[in-house]
Each structure stands twice: as structure tokens, then as C-alpha cells.
Design a protein that fits this description.
mainly alpha; 830 residues
């Protein structure tokens, strides 16, 4: 700052050199004109001017003046209430008034000029001295701060030196620690190697000892097996020894590379065989003693049934609690070593079955003899005999399961041998039974006994439960005996009954359907329909309900009106439906339905010889029932679901069949029935054959109702058409000819109305008597009316153009024609 001020001073003293291009100057007036001031600026200038009129002395002089004379008035205070200070911390020098000049000589300051200032240069020199003093006083605190910073730097240098000394000491300590660490690590590694070697030696010792234990077990097993007496198998250590031998055998089989492993393996296997032989000997001996004791007790007189059950089952069950663990070990080892031990287990099975058979044969024979197979009715014999055998087989199965958990095939073979005692008497009776109902009841009894054998969820879980008999988890898990399947024992008798039932049904179909000869009362239609309108008895209603549950035919309330072959077909199939295999039943049902359809067609031909309409309606009625029966039996693909409200189940099919007002062509009928189009009448499918016959019968019924009424009209139209188109027609006018005159046409139209009221009404009434179902009748009647209406419309169009319009008022228009036909065909009382 002193440099800046000296430069300013020098700038002031240096005279200004004239500029080559002097700038234009502004006067005060021009400046004020160009830069006018507002009121606030003027007030500020006035305040600055007033403040600058009273100059203040420098602080130095103000202090000296205050110190020199206390009576001197104080320095005036500026407007701000504070003394104006110069730059830095030094106070400004107060102004010295002229009256105080006498005191300057007494208090001379170092900055005070020694000589009075006379020239500008002296003033500049004195001012420079003052300026340097001010600058020095302003930089005093900076120099003090620099001194403090210097002290701090010295202290930091001392600390750094101390830190370097500590770092050197720490480095020495770290080097010493590293040397100790390396030495300790080497010692630790050496100790670790010693420990590892020790562990390996210990493991090797334990492994050798463990493997030696398998070899040393042979001595213990041999010593135990050499112990005399059959009670050895009852000792607690015996089964433990067998388990240890089994484990040793498994171990040696997986370590055949050991020294003398084959020799020890052979000896262990011999020990196992000896142990299992002891179990077999003890079981056979105990079983023989028990059988002899029970047989002796049973041979005594007056042994009650309860005592017999106790001797035959309770005694054996009690013994099984002691023998079952031993037999379980034998079964388990026989599954593991079948070549060596399967024969021993088979001997135990044989001994058990022989003992049981010797005890049961006599009792079983007496029970069968008590049933009296030669005189008892077949169904009752089957029910009582099979029920007894089922209970006997169940008891035997449960008793066997208390001893063994294997040998299921041998068990069922044994049970089948017991059942043969009844089957030997039952099979001949079944194979020679002539009654189809009795055979069906036999099948019902057998199936009722077998249906109780259906497995439940709990039974499946029990049958599928695995019994772990091996210690090695990788070995297969063996299933124990599950539930007794009595159906396997009754299957042979059921097959015999079903076979006999099938052949008997075939015989009935051939004799009573295919070769059936109708009697006069069988063809007494429609008298049978009229007579059948009386209420049915209770027995007949129950029989109809039982058959309707199978075939779902609501027309069974008039079953006595059926043709006998249809009745026999329904009866035979209802008997066979639940008792033969589905494939066999389908073949038999198709054969029966085809033969029934042929017999119905033959009977319809006989009826048509007396009354064509009765023959056609008879065939339609029975074919509708037969069609619904085949659909409910699932012989072919069904077109409508079961349980339909249509009693015959074919109203929709007939409606589609007759949905056209034109003539019924063969192909259109096939399409309406949903049958593939074919000109081959030799269709082997049951449903196609029925559809063909039904189509023809419906056509015949419609034609028989409409043709007698429309034939005169059609003949008249044909003659008129021929007259107009033939080149050889007579020259006389058409209306002048006798057959075409207006009276003849009026008579023809009157005859048409009479025929509708007489013949069509009678035909529709006969149709309602045969078919009974209102919807089916309405479909056929609708198409007959359409055909009649079509022919009459053609006749009306012809006569309208004749006779100069004379017939226009006498023929029926469309609305009147439909009203007349509707009235004629309407059901009375409807």
C-alpha cells in the first residue's frame, strides 16, 4: 500500500504532459444538464458536504492534544456517533486548532515535522513518512501472525523428527515379530504334520480293527450254532447273531479282494444256512406238535363250534406270536439268498399248508355235505356255499398273514384247493342249468360277493406300504401281504356261469327270436292296443320298472302290446347286460337286435296282407322302440343323450327325416337320420339296418295317408297336362270334354273333401293308437298334410285357369285348406 501511495504521490508531482489530441471538456453546467440529480441524490450530496466542512485531526494529534491539556475541549464526534478511524487499527489524528500551537514544542511526535512545512516537496516528504507509518501500523498484526506461524512450524518439525524416531523403533519391532512369526509357523507346521500322521495311524488302526471284527464274528457264530438243543432259536442272542452274520456276508461280498475273504464268506454262508435250518426245524416241529394236539381235540365228541374256532385259529394265532419273528428272518434271508434258502422257506410253507389242510378238509366236507348240493336250488347253493368259502378263506388268509409275509401265490393256490371241494359240486349244476334267470341270479350272487372286494384308498395304502427288510437302503424294498382278493377265488365259478349264460342266451335268441313262428293272437292288431288301455298290476309295474332302468323306455307301460320277439330281445339283453364282458355283450346284442328286426319285418308283412296301414304302423311302432333300445345300450354311436323327454327317443330323428315337403328320396332320408349315404341295402350295422327299415315304414305310412286322397287329383292334373302337351290331342276344347267339365271338377273337389274327412281322419286316429306319442304323431301327420296340401294346390291352380274362372269361388284357398286339414287331423278332445 505504501508503494501504491508513493506512486500516487509521484503521479501528482509529475507535471502533466500535453496530449497530442486533447479531449473535449465538459463544463459543470453541461454536466448538470446531461446528468440531472433527483431529490435523494441532492440530499446525499448536501449531507456529504456538511460532513466534510469540519475536518478531523489525525489520531496521533488528537491523542497528544488530549494528553497535553485536560481543559481543552474534546474532539468533536462525527455524526455516526463513532470516531472515524484510519486504515488499520491506529486511530486518526485529531485536528489541532490554531490556538494550540504553543504546546507543540512540548509534545513533539516522531512523525511531527521538525521544520515547518513550507514547500510542496516538504509536504510530500512529510506525507510519505506519515504514509509509511500508517502502513507499518496496519501490518503489525500480520507480522505478529507470522511470528506465531513460525513457532508452530518449529514445533511441527520437532514432532516430525520424533515421529521418524518412533517409526524407526516400530520397524525394528516389526522385523523382530516377523522373525518370531516365521519361527512359530515352522513349529506349528511340524506339529500339524505330527498330528496328521497320528490321526492316520489311529484311523488305520480302527479300520483294521473294524475289518477284523467281521472275520472274528465267525468264531462267535460257530460257537453259538454248535450249542445243542432246538431252544437255541428262542434265545435273544440268536437273532442278533443271524443279523451279524448277514452283515458279515454283505461285507465280504463287497470286499472279495481281502485275504482269505472267499474262505470266510463260504463259512459265513454255512452259518447262515445252519441258522435258517434251525428255524425251519423248530417251526416244523412246533407246527406238527400243535397240529397233533388240535387234531386230537377236534376228534373228541361234542366239540362246539366256538371250541372248534378256538382250536383252529386262536391256538394258532397264539403260537404265531412266537414263531412270526423267526419266520420273518427266514423270509428276509430267503429273499436275499434265494439259491441257498428259498427251499427252506418253501418247506415251511408246505408244512403249514399241509397242517392246515389236514385240519380243515374234514370240517369243510361236512359243511358242504350239509348244504346238500344235489337237492338245494342252484342260486341258494351258490349263495350259501360261496359265502361260507369267503369267510373260510378270509380266516385262513388272516391266520397265514400272522405267520408269513410272503408266499402269496402258494397261499392262493391253497385257498383255491379248499374252494375246489365246493366247485366240484357247483360246476356241473351250473353247466347243466337250463334256466336263464337262474344263471343270471348266480352271476348276481357271485358279483355281489366280489364287489365287496373292491379296494379302497386305505386298502391301497396298506397294500402299497413297503416293509424294509434290508439294512442297506439301496436294496429293493419288499411288499408284504395285503388284502385278500376273494374275486380271484370266485372268478372261475363266475366264468363258468357267464359261459353257460352266454350259450343259453344264444340258444334263446335262435329259438325264440330267429325261428319264432307268430301265433294268431300275436298279430291281433290293433285289438291288442285297444285292450291294453287297462291299468297294470303291481307285479307287472315292478318288472317294467326294472327293465326301464336299463333301457330307459317310457313305452314299457304297454309292453304287453309288443311283438313277442321284441319282448324276448329286451328281456334277454336286460338279463345279460351286467353279467358278461362288454365286447361279448355287444356282439350278442347286435345279433339279437338284427334277428329281432328281421322278425318284426316279417310280422309286418303278414299284417299288411290284411291291413296295409296296420302293417306299416306296427313296424314303425316297434322299430322306434328298438332304435331307442340300441341307443341306450351303446351298441352304436348315439345321436341323442339318455334321459330324453321323447319316449321313443327318435322324435327329432323322425322330424329331420320328414323335414321336406317333397317326396322322400333314399339319400335325403339317410342324411336326415345322420346315416352315411349309400345305395347298398346289405348294411351290417345294427343302427343302419334299423334306420333303413324305419325310413321305409315312415314313407309307407305317409304315402298310405296321403295317396288315397290325392291320387284322383294327381290323375286329373296329369290328364290336363297331357292334353295340353300332346300333339295328338282331340280338337274339342278341354272344358267341353266330359271328364274335364266343370261339374266333373266340382265332383272331384267334393270327393277330396269327403276323403279328407273320412280316410285321413281315420288314418290319423289309427296312427295315434299305434304310436301314442303325440310329438311323433304330429311329425308324421304334418308331412302327410304337407303332401296333401301340395297336391291340392296343384289341382287348384289348374281349375282356376279353366271354366272362365267359374271354379274360383268353389275351391279352397291356402288358409281354408290348412284350416280344414288341421280340423280333420286334430286329436278329439284336444
Amino acid at each position: 500500500m505504501s508503494g501504491i501511495r508513493s506512486g500516487a504521490r509521484r503521479a501528482v508531482t509529475t507535471p502533466a504532459s500535453p496530449t497530442p489530441h486533447p479531449k473535449s471538456t465538459l463544463t459543470v453546467e453541461e454536466w448538470e444538464a446531461k446528468a440531472p440529480l433527483d431529490d435523494i441524490a441532492n440530499k446525499s450530496i448536501s449531507a456529504v458536504k456538511a460532513a466534510s466542512e469540519i475536518p478531523t485531526l489525525p489520531f496521533k494529534f488528537a491523542a497528544e492534544e488530549a494528553a497535553g491539556s485536560s481543559s481543552r475541549p474534546s474532539t468533536p464526534v462525527p455524526r455516526g456517533g463513532k470516531l472515524q478511524a484510519g486504515l488499520g487499527s491506529r486511530p486518526s489524528t485529531p485536528n489541532i486548532p490554531a490556538s494550540a500551537s504553543g504546546l507543540r514544542s512540548q509534545f513533539q511526535h516522531a512523525l511531527h515535522p521538525k521544520q515547518p512545512v513550507a514547500t510542496p516537496q516538504q509536504f510530500y516528504d512529510w506525507f510519505a513518512l506519515i504514509d509509511r507509518s500508517v502502513a507499518h501500523s496496519q501490518e503489525a498484526h500480520i507480522r505478529a501472525h507470522l511470528l506465531g506461524v513460525g513457532d508452530y512450524l518449529e514445533l511441527c518439525d520437532a514432532l516430525l523428527a520424533r515421529v521418524d524416531e518412533v517409526d524407526v523403533e516400530v520397524g525394528g519391532m516389526l522385523e523382530g515379530w516377523r522373525s518370531v512369526e516365521e519361527g512359530g509357523k515352522s513349529l506349528q507346521e511340524a506339529c500339524q504334520r505330527l498330528l496328521e500322521e497320528r490321526d492316520k495311524l489311529v484311523e488305520l488302526q480302527e479300520a483294521i480293527g473294524t475289518r477284523l471284527d467281521y472275520f472274528q464274528e465267525l468264531e462267535h457264530a460257530t460257537r453259538m450254532l454248535n450249542h445243542p438243543g432246538e431252544s437255541l432259536v428262542l434265545q435273544t442272542d440268536f437273532l442278533y447273531m443271524v443279523e451279524r452274520v448277514d452283515i458279515c456276508i454283505e461285507f465280504l461280498k463287497t470286499h472279495r479282494h481281502f485275504k482269505e475273504a472267499e474262505v470266510y464268506l463260504l463259512r459265513f454262508q454255512q452259518c447262515m444256512t445252519r441258522a435258517m435250518t434251525l428255524i425251519r426245524m423248530y417251526f416244523v416241529g412246533s407246527l406238527r406238535a400243535l397240529t397233533q394236539d388240535v387234531s386230537r381235540r377236534l376228534s373228541e365228541k361234542d366239540v362246539s363250534t366256538t371250541a372248534q374256532m378256538h382250536l383252529l385259529y386262536t391256538r394258532f394265532t397264539t403260537v404265531s406270536a412266537q414263531l412270526a419273528p423267526l419266520l420273518g428272518e427266514l423270509e428276509r434271508r430267503a429273499r436275499a439268498y434265494p439259491d441257498e434258502l428259498a427251499a427252506l422257506l418253501a418247506e415251511c410253507h408246505s408244512a403249514y399248508f399241509s397242517a392246515r389242510k389236514s385240519l380243515l378238509v374234514g370240517r369243510l366236507t361236512e359243511e358242504i355235505r350239509g348244504l346238500d348240493p344235489t337237492r338245494t336250488e342252484l342260486v341258494e347253493l351258490t349263495r350259501s356255499g360261496c359265502s361260507y368259502l369267503k369267510q373260510l378263506c378270509t380266516d385262513e388268509f388272516n391266520l397265514y398273514r400272522s405267520f408269513f409275509s410272503s408266499g402269496e401265490d402258494q397261499l392262493y393256490q391253497y385257498l383255491e384247493n379248499l374252494c375246489d371241494y365246493l366247485y366240484d359240486d357247483l360246476r356241473p349244476r351250473i353247466l347243466h342249468e337250463p334256466r336263464l334267470t337262474a344263471l343270471c341270479e348266480v352271476c348276481t350272487v357271485l358279483q355281489a360277493l366280489m364287489v365287496l372286494d373292491l379296494p379302497t384308498l386305505a386298502d391301497d395304502e396298506e397294500d402299497n406300504e413297503d416293509v424294509t427288510l434290508n439294512f442297506d437302503p439301496d436294496k429293493p424294498r419288499v411288499k408284504g401281504l395285503g388284502k385278500l382278493h376273494i374275486s380271484q377265488l370266485l372268478q372261475m365259478v363266475l366264468q363258468d356261469a357267464q359261459t353257460r349264460l352266454f350259450f343259453k342266451a344264444q340258444s334263446v335268441i335262435q329259438s325264440e327270436i330267429r325261428y319264432y313262428t307268430p301265433k294268431p293272437e300275436d298279430l291281433a292288431y290293433p285289438d291288442k292296443l285297444v285292450a291294453a288301455r287297462k291299468p297294470a298290476t303291481g307285479y307287472e309295474m315292478r318288472e317294467k320298472e326294472s327293465i326301464s332302468q336299463l333301457f330307459q323306455l317310457s313305452s314299457l307301460d304297454k309292453r304287453e302290446t309288443w311283438f313277442p320277439t321284441l319282448t324276448k330281445t329286451v328281456w334277454v339283453l336286460s338279463q345279460l347286460h351286467d353279467f358278461v364282458q362288454p365286447a361279448i355283450f355287444d356282439d350278442l346284442a347286435q345279433e339279437a337286435v338284427n334277428l329281432c328286426r328281421q322278425s318284426l319285418s316279417a310280422a309286418a308283412d303278414m299284417l299288411r296282407a290284411k291291413s296295409p296301414l296296420d302293417g306299416h304302423l306296427f313296424l314303425v311302432r316297434h322299430l322306434l322302440i328298438l332304435k331307442e333300445m340300441t341307443r341306450n345300450l351303446d351298441l352304436v354311436q348315439r345321436d341323442a343323450p339318455r334321459g330324453s323327454h321323447d319316449p321313443y327317443g327318435v322324435t327329432d330323428a323322425v322330424s329331420a327325416l320328414l323335414s321336406r315337403t317333397t317326396a322322400l328320396l333314399p339319400n335325403s332320408i339317410f342324411a336326415s337320420l345322420g346315416v352315411s349315404r349309400s345305395d347298398d341295402d346289405a348294411l351290417t350295422d345294427v343302427k343302419h339296418g334299423i334306420d333303413l327299415d324305419l325310413k321305409g315304414a315312415c314313407e309307407s305310412v305317409i304315402a298310405y295317408l296321403a295317396d288315397p286322397i290325392t291320387t284322383p287329383l294327381r290323375t286329373f292334373i296329369t290328364r290336363v297336362t297331357t292334353h295340353h302337351t300332346s300333339p295328338n290331342a282331340p280338337s274339342t276344347p278341354l272344358a267341353a270334354q266330359k271328364w274335364a267339365a266343370q261339374p266333373a271338377s266340382e265332383a272331384l273337389e267334393a270327393e277330396f273333401r269327403t276323403a279328407c274327412a273320412r280316410d285321413l281322419r281315420a288314418g290319423v286316429a289309427r296312427m295315434r293308437l299305434y304310436l301314442e306319442d303325440r310329438k311323433t304323431v304330429d311329425v308324421l301327420v304334418m308331412h302327410a298334410r304337407d303332401r296333401v296340401e301340395e297336391e291340392y294346390v296343384g289341382f287348384r291352380d289348374v281349375v282356376w285357369n279353366m271354366y272362365a274362372g267359374g271354379m274360383r269361388e268353389k275351391v279352397l284357398d291356402n288358409e281354408a285348406l290348412r284350416g280344414m286339414l288341421r280340423e280333420v287331423c286334430e286329436e278329439p278332445g284336444r
